[in-house]
Amino acid sequence: MKRLFDFILSLIGIIVLMPLIIIFSLLIWLQDFKSPFYVADRVGKYGKLFKMIKFRSMIVNASSSGVDSTAEDDNRITNIGKVVRKFKIDEIPQLFNVFMGKMSFVGPRPNVLNETNLYSEIENKILTVRPGITDFSSIVFSDEGEILKGSDNPDLKYNQIIRPWKSRLAIIYIENQSLIIDIKLIIWTIIGIINKKVVLKNITNFLTNIGCDQKLINACKRDKELEPFPPPGFNDIINSRE
């Protein structure tokens, strides 16, 4: 049922959004006459690599810097890239990944191999399902670039203050997934672009109702600065990405 839902909805999305895909493909190409798409390896279901497609929001060969996490003030981001990232337009081409069965509309966000290699045994559960365009963490940490802004080591900061909660939210989704929850998350994702505060309240209420840990719920409220915390399966805060 989930795969059928993904197939039909992605096909409709591609058809409806094709004018927008064409317009932004042209705008991105005009800035430097390079491919408007960013195609990169991501870790999919059962740890298999696949090519994820996004609109390119950075300079060509930005990944050669070796930095996987992107802060809002990252100098690799282009002018048009700031726009597509702000309104999540860069995610639209992933509809093709969903259509081809490599991704789902809803599921844990696909990660790079450098990050999944650091997963604990508990976190490896995240790789038992297809990654998605959106999930709880995509909404809660939609401002990831702002969170990492100003950091000398955004990859390490990501592992210290975002990964601990992002991984827990992914596991909670897997343990409670249903078509109803998928539909709710898609709706919340759309509303969150306009009014994130309302959506965060819905998410924290959901987490409370299913009996989640209060520390996770507090982190998802996003009313306080995030603090370092151990990822699932670890006793200590991550101090190195090696």
Radius of gyration: 17 Å
Tell me the strand percentage band: 5-15%
Task: Look at the structure and give the mean pLDDT.
Answer: 94
Uncertain residue segments = none
Number of domains: 1
The number of helices is 10
Cα-to-Cα separation, first versus last residue: 40 Å
Task: Provide the succession of SSEs.
Answer: HEEHHEHEHHHHHH
Secondary structural class: mainly alpha
How would you describe what is shown here?
With 242 residues, the protein is mainly alpha-helical. It has one domain (2-221). 50% of the residues lie in helices and 8% in strands. The protein has ten helices and four strands; from the N terminus they run αββααβαβαααααα. It has helices spanning 2-32, 79-86, 94-99, 113-116, 136-140, 144-148, 154-176, 179-194, 196-209, 214-221, and strands at residues 37-43, 49-55, 104-106, 132-134. The strands form two sheets. The chain has a two-stranded antiparallel ribbon. A two-stranded parallel ribbon has the order 3-4. Helix 9 (196-209) runs antiparallel to helix 10. The longest helix is centred in the first third of the chain and has 31 residues, at 2-32.
In short:
The chain is mainly alpha-helical and 242 residues long.
Structural topology:
Blueprint: H1 2-32, E1 37-43, E2 49-55, H2 79-86, H3 94-99, E3 104-106, H4 113-116, E4 132-134, H5 136-140, H6 144-148, H7 154-176, H8 179-194, H9 196-209, H10 214-221
Parallel strand pairs: 3-4
Antiparallel strand pairs: 1-2
Which descriptors would you attach to this protein?
globular, two-stranded parallel sheet, 242 residues, mainly alpha, 10 helices, two-stranded antiparallel sheet
